[in-house]
Structures are given as C-alpha cells and as structure tokens.
C-alpha cells in the first residue's frame, strides 16, 4: 500500500531524531570524529578520546544516507538546511580522518617498500586532536581493511556529489593510500577485529576481509576524479588492473574461509554484500553467506568467528592474549553480535529477498534496546551468556537467554540500523549510497575480444605474411610512416612511468614503487600528453633468462596470457596485445609451416584461440575500441626523458670471440621504432657483443651414440631404486659434462646427456687452457674450459684472447647466447646458473602460487627453505642458490620450474586441488624418476636427459605429471634455426615428450586411489588381481607421485582432527601431534591445523612412505567412524600400524607364494624399500582383499582390541 506524504514525513522525522540522539550527539564539534561505543551510563568510558578509522566510517554512513534523503526531497529552506548540515558533518569526519592519516605520510612512504607492521598507519586517533593515541607497538595497527574501507567510502561519497578532497597534495596522498593497499593479497595484517591470529598473540595473517575490501576500494577509486565535476587530469586516481586481478584471485582462493586461523568469519558479510560487493560470482557469494549462517548465526546475532573469547565470562580480563589450550573453553558460548543481523538484512534488501527481509527484521527487533521515555532504539555491541548459565549452554547451544554486554550502544551497529530503516521504508534507494554501482559487480559480463597487433621484423616478412592472409605492421613503418598512430615500448618502461604517479615532495612521498606490470597493464594503450604508447607483453622482456628462446614455450606463454585476459579483464574498452615477430621466431619462409609461431598467427587470424576471441588487425583500426588510460600526471620533460631509448647500432659487423652464429637483419630505426627493436632483441637473447672476438667458428658434430629410448613406459620389474639414492645424487652431484677437475681434449662429439666423456687433460696451466680455448671449435669443450676457469679464477678474471683483453664473464655471456641460439639446453641451463641469471618476473610467479594458498619450498628434504610470503626476485633467487650449493644447473632449473607451476595455477588451478604445499625439489626428482622410467635408463642419465629437454617439453612433462597422465618418449631432430641468414639444422637428435598411443595407455593410471574416500565396506569389494592385469611398478610409482606432490584425499585434514579427539596424540615419523593443545586451539576446518599436519607429513623423506601414512590415517578415520569404541587410548603411532599391516601382508605372501617370497619374506627390508617396507607392499593397490588398506584396517582393528577389554570388541562393517 502506498504511503501518504505525511507518513513518509513522520518516518523521516523519526530517523532524524534517532540519528541526532544516538550518533550526532556524541560527535566532536571540532574534528567531527565519533567514539566507537557507549557504556551503560551513556559515556564512552576509557575510549572516549579514541576514534577508530573503521568504526567512524561505518558510523557516518547513516548520516550520509539521511543527508541524501533530505537533499533529494528538499522542500523548503529547513530541509535544504538539514541536507547541507548533514553533508558537511560527513565531510568534516572524512576530512579529519584524512588529516590524521596525512600526519603519518612518512609511514605510508616506508610501508610501500617494507610492508612492515611497524610502518603501518595507526588504526585509531584522538577524537579531539586527530593525533595518535597509542604507540606503534602497543596496538595492532596494520589493518588494511580499515584503510581500504576509507578509500571505498571516499570514492562513493565523491561519486555521490560530496566535495571532500580540496588540494592536489591531498590527491597525491590518496594516491599513495592506493599504493598502501594495492598489494593486500600478500600483506598479513590484524584484520577486521584487530587481533590477527585468533589467539591474539600479535601474529598477523592474510585475511579475506582485508583483501576483499582492498579489491573493492581499488575498483571503486580507479579513474575517479577526486575533485568531482571541478577536477581535471591531475586529480584522477590511477590503479593497476593487475593488482585488482591478484586481489580477486586471492579472495576467490580464500572464500568462504577468512584466514588460516579462522575457518569462517561473520565479517565476510561486509565483503560479499554492502559495502564492498567484492565477490566475483553469485555462487561464491551464496556459498560464503550460507557458511556464515550455518556456523555462526544464533538467536541474538552471529558470532564473529568460532571460539571467539571476546567479552565471554570465561575470558580473563587481565590479559589480551589467550593460551592455545584455552580456546576450546569458548566453544558454544561465543558472544553474538546484532550487527550481523543488520548486515544480513541489508543484504536481503539489496537482493530483494522478501522472506529474508521479514525474518531478519524480526530477529533484529527482538535484540535492540528500546528507551520507553523517548521511544529511541539503540543497538548493543553484543549479547553474552551469563555466568550462571554457561554450563547449560555448553550442553545445549542456543538454549539459554543472553544478556547485553556492558557497551549498550555500538555506533557502527547503530548507524547500520538507521540505514536499514531508511532503505526498508523506501526513504532511501540503494543506488544513492552505492552511486558507483558496486552491487552490480557480480553481474555476468561478456568475454572480451582481444585485439592483436602483429609487428613483423621487416617489410619482406610483412608481405609474405600478407600473402598467407595475415596482417602485420612493420618496424619500418613505425618509423617512416607519419600516419603510424602510436609508439611501442617494452613492458619494463611502464613501471618507470608509473613511478611518477603520486609524488609529493612536500610530504616526502616518492610515488609508486618500481614493480613489474602484468598482462592487463600491457594490454592497455596509454595517452601521455601528445603521444599514444603501447607496450609489448612482460614475458618478452626476459632479457636475463632463456625460457623464451624456445618458440613452442613462447607460444604457450601467449596462450596463457590470452586466457588470463579473458578471465580477469574488467576494464572499459578492449585489451590490445602487441606481438613482435622476428625471423628467429619464424625461420625462413619456406619452413614456416613447421614454425609454432607461424601456426599461432594462423590461429589468431582464425579468431579463436585457447577459448578466447581474438581479432588481428592494424593499430590504427583499434584506437577507437582499445582501452586507453590517460597518464597526464607525468611531467612533459620527464616523459621525454623516460621514453628516450639509446640508439641501437644496426650495422654491427664485428665477429665474436667464440664464433659468430647470428646476425641482425633489422632495418635502420630511430626514436619511434628503436624500442620495438630493443624488445625483439631482448626477447630472443642475441644482442650484439661489445668486444671484437676472434675465436674460430663453432663446431657441433653429430653423436655416434644413439639415445636409449624404451618403447615401454613401465618400470623394470620392481628393481629397487630408493628415492634416498636419487636425493643424494640428483642435484648435488657434479655432472660429467661440466667437471671442474678435468677437461676433454680432441674433436669430441656433441654431448649426449648421460654419455660420459673419457678423454681428459692436465688443467694445471691456465695459459695453456686459454690457448686451447682460442683453438677449440667444439662448444661443449669450450664450456668445460670456461667452467674450470670460472671455478678457479672467478667471473671477473681478465684474460687476453688474441690481443683482446676481456673478462671471463663476457666470454660466458657469449657462450650463453650462442648455446641459446643453437638450443643446446643443458649448456644453456648450466651457464645461466654460473652467470646467476634471474627470471625477471620470478617474484611475480611465486606470488601467483602464494595468493592461491599454495606455499612452496625449494631444495631437497633436510635442506629445504619454505616460501610462505611473496619475495622480490633477487631474494628468492638468493634462497634458491643457497639450497642448490654449487649446482648451477639446479639453480636455473628451479627458477624454471617455479615459472611453469605459476603458469599452471593461473590457467588450470584444478591441478592443485588438495595440495597445500609444493615441494619443488621433490617435484623435480619425480620428473627425473619418470623420465628415467620411460627411457629405461639410470637416474643420472635421466637427470641429464631432463636438463637437455627444451623448456616446452619440460613444462609438458611437468603438466602430465600433475594431471596424472601417461607420456611417451620420441626421438626428434633438434629445432631448425635461422642463423646468419641461413637455415641451420643441428646434426644430433634430442628427445621429446608426447602423449602415448591409445594402445600404450590401456590399463594405465586408473583412478583406483580415489577409493580412499569411500566407505569401509568398499574396501573388500575387489579381489586379488592377477599379475597380468597391471604392470609391475604402477602403484609404487603412483604413491611416489602423489607423495611428492603432497596430494591428499578430500576432507583429509578434518578427518585427522576427529581422530585426535579419540587419542592423546598422533605420532608421524619422528614428530608427534598432541591432542592438547591442538584440538583445543584449532577447529577441524582451520587452515592452520592443515598446515601443521602437513609439516608433520613433510618430515618423512620418502614420498611413497608419506602416501602410506596418508592412507593409514584415512583407514583409521573410516574405522573409528564405524567403531563403537570411544577412543584408541594413548598415542596413535602410525608407524606401528603400517608395519603391522606390512607384517600381515608378508604372512599372506608366504601363504600364497607371492612375489615378496623372493625378498622380504625371508629377510624384512632386503629389497631396499623405504623405512623397511617391502616394495611389493608399496606396489599393491589400495583396495581389494589384498590391498594395502585392507591390511591397514586389520591392523587398526588389532590395535583397538589391544586397548579395550576382550568382551568389548571392535565392530566393523
């Protein structure tokens, strides 16, 4: 029924009076700041002079909402006056918070670089003076969500018409606040409740509420003019799209979890609905809401999180922190906050969910406090269980009546109560408090059309491509044609430009830190004064590393970036990608059909690749449809300086010290095209040398030794190859091809990995080595000589080569370039390690893993370094080198592996399901094992073959291992290279990874291991299989793979937690997981518990044994859920159960004359299996009458019989 004007006026007057009496009454007249709460006597008590940033922003929302109502319906002078007064009240509060933070501009500058909690902005300030009220170390100040909430609300209010920012200095500070929060996806903070880890010991953690609020703030304030309609280019805020995408990725990986110590948090309601609306899909939003309601909702509101001790009668008021064993005391008596009924009501109002609106309005009205004399409603902070009713509440949760806490009015809650009323009564529209339409952010958007501009090396290539229906611009036209619309630069110039953003010398703010830019940033066009600039993708800037030398991997990188753009593009306009094409990539025209880059261009022209719609054209056609960003904050003089690239000498004719293998066929270029040339050259790793070089032409002669490729991919019948041997020899042994204590002489064949060299030479005379180096033509011998000189004299050693003085480093660099051009990958990797080459975006790749909750370690067991926080590339490489010791190939290969893992997790995150930590060293050893098995060779030979694989095949092998697919080995000619204007085909062959024929796949890698999650009755469903059904070695291989990859069955960690409820502890290897304080501190779904259990499992060096432990714990869980026994009694020693199951297995083997009769039935451990377990037990299927899980179930039953009386038998179905 439509309300009359008088009814609406009466309602408006009611809310005006309620706001004035409950909120504005307590606003400081000088600063406009508010206290967070009121006590029963109507005062703010000890906190009367403390203004929390978060609470003040939420408290002023009701003021803004009511001001909007008056402004929209202003009739008469009185209403206009009220609207103006309320608006200025909002402005005063927001500006006071801004002034308080601007006084700490020095902290913002420090925090941009350090990300340290001691450099964080303060979380609260003085109400009367805006000064700080507590010291840097006396409060959990690092609260990214509070700063983000301020930015988000500031953006909404400015978009709604309020004038809050007055000067360009303030604009610069707000821009630096953006830098402060933009990397929230790897900033551990204290979170929305200021406590960090729920034990309140001052430990920070990654919080979904902080990341979600930061994502919302970045999206809201991007491209916003802080001066509103009065502004211009200098008052616009800029945000990097890649930072928003990373925040979203991390948020998606966390939800519905809040953090590692909080499996769910009611504060997430502010993220999935008003004010942030940060969830990317309605499904994720619904799942999070359901989780909050099912686990936290009560009669009086919602708990903040499980086992929250705040304000409970069991909390010790004399200390802030909790003991770990104390947390379980708070279970079922956590205080309930009416605030969350308001958030759920707001969410229902926005969604238009009538039943939910009615339900939560009734629940909310039942918990507010009404003042009978004035008819005012106040909302208390929380409701607690009285001390005399705690025992009853323990027994039956939600059964006892609760009482309000001593803070009778919570300002944040009071503000949202008024806001809900204004919306529900129809006085306020949601669009008026969400003018930026954040609530529509979850709406489905069409997939972007990616615009592709191909840039050929010269006109000849462009014409040839045109004949094949492929449109390509040319570098020559970029310079000579005045109509060419834009300037094209390498990606590493873009961060330099952004360093000029937000600079304020008055406040000591330096602008945006120098950080790499992702594919979203390089897929935009940039308007810089009179110039329009485009940037090539970041992966083409790999001037220091070798992976882009492999054209097939280069194509894969392009496909990955296209898929990433499809998933994460949210900007106005279409993404535009500039791809340079060179003859090194394409080869000679007659061989283009074999070129993976040419096939990529054909797929691009077809308009659909990797599930992404693309369009190939010329740049001039894309200017109107491309996403264009204005960068007018850059000073014109500085812009000219930053974009000035040194002239490149295109007429180099000097030969090289080790033989010339490539040339530059580029046209003469100047300012507009030299950057493109720079990009092309750096991406192909063959820049001109700086010295005159005089050594002979390189010789790469064919090998007389054939590759040992097996047609079968099965393991030799259970030949014991313990992983311990591999760990000892794989990456710590010196490889024969690069020995430092002996050299090779004579004309030796090109090196075949795994083939030893027999000739040696006395290396005592350095001068003889230098003379030999000048005469030697074989590139492998040159590598050995240089490697020895490096180990003996160091990289800075100066030597004279045919009258030319140079450093050893320059010779190694040249050899690196040549081996890269010739695609001699084992050489490339080894020399890259010697030269300490670093993947330019290695830190970004590590962050890609970490933001998706995949911690990783580098090194091998007993010498591992865990990476749990994002690090700069330099620091990460230093850690890698420290664990690799002097093994240069391992250092380079580890970087390469991390890059591939990051590519996988961006494109196929499902590959990493049920993995918490990635152990890079063990993963590499699995690659060696698999390659050795497939080639039927030794581990050392398999290692050499792995290092000689091209990067694309390494990536493919790794992908097949992660996806549990079989692979086969084939011989192939080495890649054809375009060298010195001619086609060069290497005479020796190399191996390649391919999918096997269907006949080879038959019967392999079935999903039998998935029975780990089935009920116990299915354990007996299969009978003993005949030996012919499965090839020997299948299951031990499967366990090694899953153990090395740290895979566990679904719900594994909660099931182990419930096992802990029935015993005093679990012993795994040399470590023990005690019941107390573990289950008293942590909940079943807590990530912190999963990480703790994972660390115990990772203490086991043999991955196949680790997997047996996982199976054993799953069996214990299945048995205990079916058992009537209350507990195991004492500590559950997993090793005892496994060895007892192994003993039962050997008994059956003796009875049936099984294959173990030849080894462990006579003498246990004689076959060399890890931890004394027979390799045949490792190679048994999990299920079936003779499966490992059947033996473990019997062992568990025996263990229960030992614990309990004979008449109280364990009952199993």
Automatic annotation (TrEMBL):
Membrane topology qualifier: Lipid-anchor
Location within or outside the cell: Cell membrane
Pathway: Glycan biosynthesis; glycogen metabolism
Molecular function terms, GO-annotated: calmodulin binding
The keyword ATP-binding appears for this protein: no
Lipidated residue numbers (S-farnesyl cysteine): 1210
GO cellular component: phosphorylase kinase complex; plasma membrane
Lineage top rank: taxon: Eukaryota
Key words, A-Z: Calmodulin-binding, Carbohydrate metabolism, Cell membrane, Glycogen metabolism, Lipoprotein, Membrane, Phosphoprotein, Prenylation
Function recorded in the entry: Phosphorylase b kinase catalyzes the phosphorylation of serine in certain substrates, including troponin I. The alpha chain may bind calmodulin.
Similarity remark: Belongs to the phosphorylase b kinase regulatory chain family.
Name of the protein this chain belongs to: Phosphorylase b kinase regulatory subunit
Organism: Geodia barretti (Barrett's horny sponge)
């Amino acid at each position: 029924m439509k309300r009359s004007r008088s009814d609406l006026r009466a309602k408006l007057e009611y809310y005006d009076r309620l706001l004035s009496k409950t909120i504005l009454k307590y606003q400081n007249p000088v600063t406009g700041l508010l206290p967070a709460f009121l006590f029963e006597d109507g005062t703010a008590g000890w906190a009367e002079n403390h203004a929390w940033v978060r609470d003040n922003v939420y408290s002023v929302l009701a003021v803004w909402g009511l001001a909007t109502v008056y402004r929209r319906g202003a009739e008469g002078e009185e209403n206009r006056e009220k609207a103006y007064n309320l608006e200025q009240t909002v402005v005063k509060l927001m500006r006071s918070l801004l002034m308080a933070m601007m006084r700490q501009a020095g902290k913002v500058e420090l925090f941009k670089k350090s990300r340290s909690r001691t450099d964080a902005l303060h979380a609260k300030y003085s109400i009367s003076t805006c000064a700080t009220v507590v010291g840097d170390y006396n409060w959990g100040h690092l609260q990214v969500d509070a700063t983000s909430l301020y930015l988000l609300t500031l953006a909404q209010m400015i978009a709604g018409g309020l004038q809050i920012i007055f000067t360009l200095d303030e604009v610069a500070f707000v821009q630096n606040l953006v830098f402060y929060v933009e990397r929230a996806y790897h900033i551990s903070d204290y979170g929305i409740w200021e406590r960090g880890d729920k034990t309140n010991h001052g430990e920070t953690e990654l919080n979904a509420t902080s990341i979600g609020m930061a994502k919302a703030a970045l999206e809201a304030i991007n491209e916003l003019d802080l001066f509103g309609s009065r502004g211009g280019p200098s008052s616009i805020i800029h945000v990097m799209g890649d930072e928003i995408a990373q925040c979203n990725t991390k948020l998606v990986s966390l939800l519905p979890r809040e953090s590692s110590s909080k499996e769910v948090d009611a504060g997430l309601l502010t993220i999935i609905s008003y004010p942030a609306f940060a969830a990317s899909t309605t499904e994720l939003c619904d799942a999070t809401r359901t989780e909050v309601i099912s686990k936290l909702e009560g009669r009086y509101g919602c708990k903040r999180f499980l086992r929250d001790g705040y304000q409970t009668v069991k909390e010790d008021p004399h200390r802030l922190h909790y003991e770990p064993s104390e947390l379980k005391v708070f279970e079922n008596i956590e205080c309930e906050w009416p605030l969350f009924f308001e958030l759920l009501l707001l969410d229902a109002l926005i969604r238009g969910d009538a039943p939910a609106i009615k339900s939560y309005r009734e629940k909310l009205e039942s918990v507010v406090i009404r003042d009978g004399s004035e008819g005012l409603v106040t909302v208390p902070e929380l409701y607690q269980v009285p001390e005399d009713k705690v025992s009853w509440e323990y027994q039956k949760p939600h059964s006892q009546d609760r009482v309000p806490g001593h803070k009778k009015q919570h300002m944040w809650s009071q503000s949202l109560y008024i806001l809900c009323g204004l919306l529900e009564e129809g006085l306020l529209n949601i669009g008026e408090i969400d003018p930026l339409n954040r609530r529509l952010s979850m709406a489905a958007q069409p997939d972007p059309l990616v615009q592709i501009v191909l840039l050929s090396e010269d006109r000849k290539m462009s014409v040839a491509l045109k004949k094949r229906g492929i449109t390509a611009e040319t570098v020559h036209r970029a310079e000579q044609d005045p109509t060419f619309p834009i300037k094209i630069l390498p990606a590493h110039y873009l961060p330099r430009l952004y360093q000029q953003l937000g600079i304020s010398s008055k406040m000591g703010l330096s602008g945006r830190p120098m950080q790499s830019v992702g594919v979203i940033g390089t897929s935009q066009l940039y308007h810089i004064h009179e110039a329009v600039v485009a940037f090539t993708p970041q992966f083409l800037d790999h001037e220091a590393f070798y992976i882009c030398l492999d054209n097939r991997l280069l194509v894969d990188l392009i496909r990955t970036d296209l898929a990433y753009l499809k998933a994460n593009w949210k900007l106005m306009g279409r993404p535009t990608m500039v791809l340079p094409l060179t003859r090194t990539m394409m080869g000679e025209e007659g061989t283009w059909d074999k070129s993976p880059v040419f096939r990529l261009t054909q797929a691009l022209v077809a308009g659909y690749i990797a599930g992404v719609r693309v369009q190939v054209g010329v740049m001039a056609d894309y200017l109107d449809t491309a996403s264009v960003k204005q960068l007018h904050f850059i000073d014109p003089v500085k812009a000219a300086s930053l974009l000035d690239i040194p002239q490149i000498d295109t007429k180099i004719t000097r030969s090289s010290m080790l033989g010339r293998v490539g040339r530059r066929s580029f046209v003469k270029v100047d300012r507009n095209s030299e950057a493109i040339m720079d990009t092309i050259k750096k991406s192909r790793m063959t820049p001109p040398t700086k010295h005159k070089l005089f050594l002979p032409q390189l010789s790469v002669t064919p090998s007389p030794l054939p590759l040992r490729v097996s047609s079968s991919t099965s393991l030799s019948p259970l030949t014991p190859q313990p992983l311990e041997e591999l760990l000892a020899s794989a990456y710590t042994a010196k490889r024969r091809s690069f020995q430092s204590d002996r050299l090779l002489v004579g004309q030796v064949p090109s090196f075949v990995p795994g083939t030893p060299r027999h000739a040696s030479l006395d290396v005592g005379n350095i001068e003889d080595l230098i003379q030999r180096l000048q005469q030697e033509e074989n590139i492998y011998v040159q590598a050995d000589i240089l490697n020895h000189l490096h180990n003996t004299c160091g990289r800075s050693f100066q030597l004279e080569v045919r009258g030319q003085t140079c450093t050893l480093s320059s010779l190694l660099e040249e050899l690196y370039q040549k081996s890269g051009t010739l695609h001699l990958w084992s050489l490339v990797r080894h020399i890259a390690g010697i030269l300490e080459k670093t993947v330019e975006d290695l830190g970004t790749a590590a962050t890609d893993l970490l933001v998706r909750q995949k911690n990783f370690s580098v090194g091998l067991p007993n010498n591992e370094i865990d990476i749990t926080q994002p690090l700069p590339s330099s620091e990460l490489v230093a850690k890698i080198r420290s664990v690799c010791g002097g093994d240069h190939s391992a250092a380079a290969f580890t970087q390469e592996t991390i890059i591939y893992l990051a590519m996988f997790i961006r494109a196929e995150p499902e590959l990493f399901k049920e993995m918490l930590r990635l152990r890079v060293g063990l993963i590499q050893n699995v690659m060696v094992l698999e390659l050795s098995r497939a080639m039927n060779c030794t581990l050392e030979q398999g290692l050499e073959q792995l290092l000689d694989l091209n990067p694309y095949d390494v990536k493919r092998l790794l992908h097949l291992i992660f996806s549990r697919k079989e692979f086969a080995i084939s011989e192939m000619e080495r890649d054809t290279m375009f060298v010195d204007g001619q086609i060069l085909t290497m005479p020796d062959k190399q191996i390649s990874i391919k999918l096997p024929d269907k006949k080879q796949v038959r019967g392999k890698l079935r999903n039998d291991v998935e029975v780990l999650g089935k009920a116990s009755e299915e354990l007996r469903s299969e009978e003993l299989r005949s030996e012919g059904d499965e090839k020997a070695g299948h299951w031990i291989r499967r366990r090694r793979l899953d153990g090395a990859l740290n895979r566990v069955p679904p719900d594994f960690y909660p099931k182990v937690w419930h096992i802990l409820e029935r015993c005093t502890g679990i012993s795994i290897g040399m470590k023990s997981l005690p019941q107390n304080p573990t289950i008293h501190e942590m909940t079943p779904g807590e990530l912190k518990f999963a990480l703790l259990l994972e660390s115990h499992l990772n203490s086991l060096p043999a991955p196949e044994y680790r997997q047996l432990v996982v199976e054993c714990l799953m069996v214990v869980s299945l048995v205990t859920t079916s058992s009537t026994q209350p507990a195991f009694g004492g500590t559950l020693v997993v090793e005892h159960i496994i060895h007892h199951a192994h003993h039962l297995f050997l008994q059956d083997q003796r009875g049936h004359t099984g294959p173990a009769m030849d080894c462990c039935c006579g003498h246990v451990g004689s076959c060399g299996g890890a931890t004394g377990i027979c390799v045949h037990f490792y190679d048994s299927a999990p299920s079936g009458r003779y499966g490992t899980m059947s033996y473990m179930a019997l062992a568990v039953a025996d263990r229960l019989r030992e614990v309990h009386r004979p008449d109280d038998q364990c009952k199993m179905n």
